[in-house]
From TrEMBL:
Coiled coil: none annotated. The keyword Cell membrane applies. Keywords: Cell membrane, Membrane, Transmembrane, Transmembrane helix, Transport. GO terms for cellular component: plasma membrane. GO terms for molecular function: transmembrane transporter activity. It comes from the Bacteria. It holds the Pfam family BCCT. The chain crosses the membrane at residues 50-73, 93-111, 131-151, 205-226, 247-268, 288-307, 319-343, 373-391, 403-430, 450-472, 499-524, 530-548. The keyword Oxidoreductase does not apply. Its main location: membrane. This is Choline/carnitine/betaine transporter.
Length: 552
């Protein structure tokens, strides 16, 4: 490595990331971005600029996996589901432990002098304003999850906790978190909200933050390509440009395409259920496929429009609609209970956090394995996509600023969202005796909760639009990320490649909806959480080592 002072006005190649501004510790490597690429720009009108190994192996393997899943579904689905269950049941302690490690690393960096380091160099300024930045990272991170689970998860934990522990033949069979709260509605409410916040608060965002910060540091400060392999330069050295790096990037593409395609299919199910609830349109396979195709077309249009006119604009629209729905529920729901509940739920989260995060000696195995370990594996499998997207829009932020914002702001918004929507649904059950939300299918519980509030048709329609637009932002930001990885780190690769990946996600989702393979794909996506958990532990070591080499 050589300490280098760079000129912020130095010309930057079209496909390269901006040069560091100010004094940074540039990594001296002979590798040039795109040197292993196959470039079709001069031969065909349809431009391509792809990493010959990562693109080819990823695309062919995903096609092969989809075909095999559909052709041998009766054999492969139980195999993938069994693998997922084995990992979450036998390695739940490992997932919980690694989640705790990532939170502690982030907190340690925030409190340490390393937090003053600026991504992009000491003279860099943020590429996006605070509102646009937050809108994009939140929409990409878990916006759609809050729509699907905002009502159903608090309600599910509340019901299980209220029932208390259940034993059959000496084995605990209930799904209540910790020891439950048998027969005590108020205690069950606190425990349910603490468990929900645990799954949507600091831990998942710490996973995303580790990936985002690592990528931003090694790309914007060290001058390496914006791909997952760059993080591991301190570990592998120049070998990272060979097969060790190929494997890391291919795994990242797998995890991203599997996670996005699965979520696209699940989101289509929720949107279809909402259309049937609101307009009487039958929630059939045809309806869901048409929704997937419509979402894919909008995502393609957004991808073609680019980061500022596409993803940024849609993310801001999304945030505005979500805020409108949230404020409406607070205003017409149990307002004082929601406001008080926000602070009480934060207190409950802090109280129960040590027990919920404990990886060893758990008696609530159904909860810790079927909920927490599953979630941690799911978040880890999504981390290449979300982390890279956050990194790409976070140039100019300090380490402390990025970590604080990524950990705290989305976590607090998630607490408010779950308190408002989930808390309102629980109040409808406990205070009003309404059981329709509790009895409804998961994809319908949001709409059933809104049905007991004024102007149901308007709010339910906003809910459907939010589900669709959240998926559009996830799809097009995911396409940008996959395209960058499969182009060897080029951030401005030809637009047709982004269109290819956005189309690919939709086609995989349609194929699996038609063939009933979504369960197998989701199980496979979660299973990628194990190798990526190991990858992220290595990334944490490389991140700290990289930060220590930076001038402060």
């Amino acid at each position: 490595m050589a300490l280098t002072t760079t000129d912020p006005h130095t010309a930057v190649a079209e496909d390269a990331i901006p040069a560091p501004e100010g004094r940074t510790e540039i990594i001296d490597t002979d590798y040039e971005i795109g040197q292993d690429n196959i470039n079709f720009r001069r031969r065909f009108v349809f431009e391509l600029d792809i990493h010959n190994v990562v693109f080819s192996v990823s695309a062919l393997s995903i096609v092969l996996f989809t075909f095999l899943t559909l052709a041998f579904q009766t054999t492969l689905e139980p195999a993938f589901t069994g693998l997922r269950n084995f990992l979450t049941s036998n390695l739940d302690w490992f997932f919980l432990l690694t989640g705790n490690v990532f939170v502690l690393v982030c907190i340690g960096l925030i409190l340490s002098p390393l937090g003053r380091i600026r991504l992009g160099g000491p003279e860099a300024t943020p590429d996006y304003g605070n509102l646009a930045w937050f809108s994009m990272l939140f929409a990409a991170g878990m916006g759609i999850g809050l729509m699907f689970y905002g009502v159903s998860e608090p309600m599910g934990h509340f019901t299980a906790a209220l029932g208390g522990p259940v034993f059959e033949d000496g084995v605990r069979t209930d799904w209540a978190p910790l020891n439950g709260a048998a027969g005590d509605p108020e205690a069950a409410r606190r425990l349910a909200m603490a468990a929900t916040i645990f799954h949507w608060g600091l831990h998942p965002w710490a996973i995303y933050a580790i990936v985002a910060l690592s990528l931003a540091l090694f790309s914007f400060n060290k001058g390496l390509p914006l791909t997952l392999r760059s993080i591991f330069y301190p570990i592998f050295g120049e070998r990272v440009w060979g097969w060790p790096g190929h494997v890391i990037d291919i795994l990242a593409v797998f995890a991203t395409i599997f996670g996005l395609s699965t979520s696209l299919g699940i989101g289509a199910q929720q949107a279809s259920a909402g259309l049937e609830f609101l307009f009487g349109i039958p929630s059939t396979e045809t309806t869901m496929i048409l929704l997937v195709l419509a979402i894919t077309c909008i995502a393609i249009a957004s991808v073609v429009a680019g980061m500022d006119k596409g993803v940024k604009l849609l993310s801001e629209v999304n945030l505005g609609l979500a805020a409108l729905l949230l404020l409406f529920v607070i205003a017409v729901g149990p307002t004082m209970q929601i406001i008080q509940g926000f602070f009480l739920n934060l207190k409950a989260y802090a109280t129960y956090l040590p027990a919920l995060a404990n990886p060893f000696g758990r008696e609530d195995t159904n909860f810790s394995q079927g909920w927490t370990a599953f979630y941690w594996a799911w978040w880890i499998s999504w981390s290449p996509f979300v982390g890279m997207f956050i990194a790409r829009v976070s140039r100019g932020r300090t380490v402390r600023g990025l970590l604080t914002a990524v950990l705290l702001i989305p976590s607090l918004v998630s607490v408010l969202w779950m308190t408002a929507l989930g808390g309102t649904a629980i109040s409808q059950l406990v205070n009003d005796g309404l059981t329709s939300v509790q009895d409804a299918a998961l994809e319908l519980q949001l709409f059933e909760m809104l049905a007991h509030l004024p102007i149901t048709a308007v709010t339910s329609f906003i809910g459907i639009v939010l589900v669709i637009v959240f998926f559009v932002t996830s799809s097009d930001s995911g396409s940008l990320v996959i395209d960058t990885i499969s182009a060897g780190g080029k951030v401005n690769a030809p637009v047709p490649q982004r269109v290819f990946w956005a189309t690919f996600e939709g086609l995989v989702a349609v194929a699996l909806l038609l063939g009933g393979g979504l369960v197998a794909l989701q199980a496979m996506a979660v299973s990628t959480g194990l190798p990526f958990a190991i990858v992220l532990l290595g990334a944490s070591y490389a991140l700290i080592k990289g930060l220590l080499s930076e001038p402060r």
